[in-house]
């Protein structure tokens, strides 16, 4: 489990994207999923177990259904302002391509117009990507709770939409933080296909290659829309065309997980 966490943690929004050879998010995610939480040696999840959301980390959707979810992280560490990739979003809109944006709370506040723009597109879902992109397992439980709740409040305030899914900054998690996210009523969502787009050296062709290599039924594909997905806008038309050519339906994460009511 720790190895899985380490692999996944390498792919967050830190700019420390793994090399293409390390596109193991898929294999690692799949093999690690069933035991990601249950294998915790502690075996003691908080008593505040969620009523509505299972304390289980999601890596992908139903493998029997030919649907996939494109996800785009909008990370922002307050000391390092990020941007907004309007060109990428325009591609999604032109293609009528549903997508899920994992939005940082601080990002929402510093990019309020962009956040509202995204929220006004009916086939986009807005997820919670914490407030200040702190390392979830390196801060206190109380600090992590504030990261979740401050982001939920900021995103809801700015966009009028309340996220129902959560993505860990850096993909960094453990059994306790997964349980905390669930107890806040959010579904913790990792990914199964890593494009490596925070690395400027990862070309559009490499991004397409990663998608072609890693995608299967139920895949959750991670990219970035905060200006740090260097070649994602360039890759996206071909990525969408290839996915649809293979018969995949693009859906939001919540729809992929069968929990799309609302949003
Ligand atoms: Zn991030």
Description:
The protein is an alpha/beta fold and 263 residues long. 37% of the residues lie in helices and 12% in strands. The protein has ten helices and eight strands. It has helices at 2-9, 25-32, 86-94, 105-110, 112-119, 141-159, 175-183, 204-214, 232-245, 253-256; strands spanning 67-74, 99-103, 124-128, 165-166, 187-188, 193-194, 220-224, 249-250. Strands 1, 2, 3, 6, 7 and 8 form a six-stranded parallel β-sheet that branches. Helix 7 links the parallel strand 4 (165-166) and strand 5 (187-188). Helix 3 packs parallel to helix 9, helix 6 (141-159) packs parallel to helix 7 (175-183) and helix 8 (204-214) packs parallel to helix 9 (232-245). The longest helix has 19 residues, at 141-159. The protein starts with a helix and ends in a 7-residue tail after the last helix. The model is unreliable at 1-12 and 14-51 (pLDDT under 50). Residues 12-13, 73, 75, 129, 133, 169 line the site of zinc ion. Zinc ion is lined by residues 12-13, 73, 75, 129, 133, 169.
């Amino acid at each position: 489990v720790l190895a899985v966490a380490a692999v996944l943690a390498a792919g967050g929004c830190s700019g420390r994207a793994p090399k293409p050879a390390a596109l193991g998010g898929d294999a690692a995610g799949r093999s690690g999923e069933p035991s990601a939480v249950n294998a915790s040696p502690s075996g003691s999840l908080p008593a505040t177990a969620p009523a509505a959301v299972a304390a289980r980390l999601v890596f992908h959707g139903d493998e029997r259904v030919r649907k996939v979810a494109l996800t785009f992280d909008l990370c922002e560490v307050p000391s390092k302002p990020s941007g907004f990739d309007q060109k990428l979003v325009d591609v999604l809109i032109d293609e009528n391509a549903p997508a899920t944006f994992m939005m940082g709370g601080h990002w929402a506040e510093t990019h309020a117009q962009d956040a509202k723009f995204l929220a006004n597109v009916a086939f986009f879902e807005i997820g919670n990507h914490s407030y200040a992109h702190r390392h979830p397992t390196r801060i206190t439980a109380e600090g992590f709770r504030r990261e979740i709740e401050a982001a939920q409040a900021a995103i809801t305030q700015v966009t009028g939409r309340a996220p129902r899914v959560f993505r860990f900054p850096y993909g960094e998690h453990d059994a306790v933080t997964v349980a905390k996210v669930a107890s806040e009523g959010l579904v913790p969502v990792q990914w199964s296909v890593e494009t490596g787009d925070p690395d400027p050296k990862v070309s559009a062709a490499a991004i397409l290659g990663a998608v072609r290599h890693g995608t299967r039924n139920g895949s959750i594909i991670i990219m970035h829309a905060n200006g740090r997905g260097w070649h994602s806008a360039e890759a996206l038309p071909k990525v969408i065309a290839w996915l649809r050519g293979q018969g995949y339906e693009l859906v939001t994460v919540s729809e992929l997980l069968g929990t799309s009511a609302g949003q």
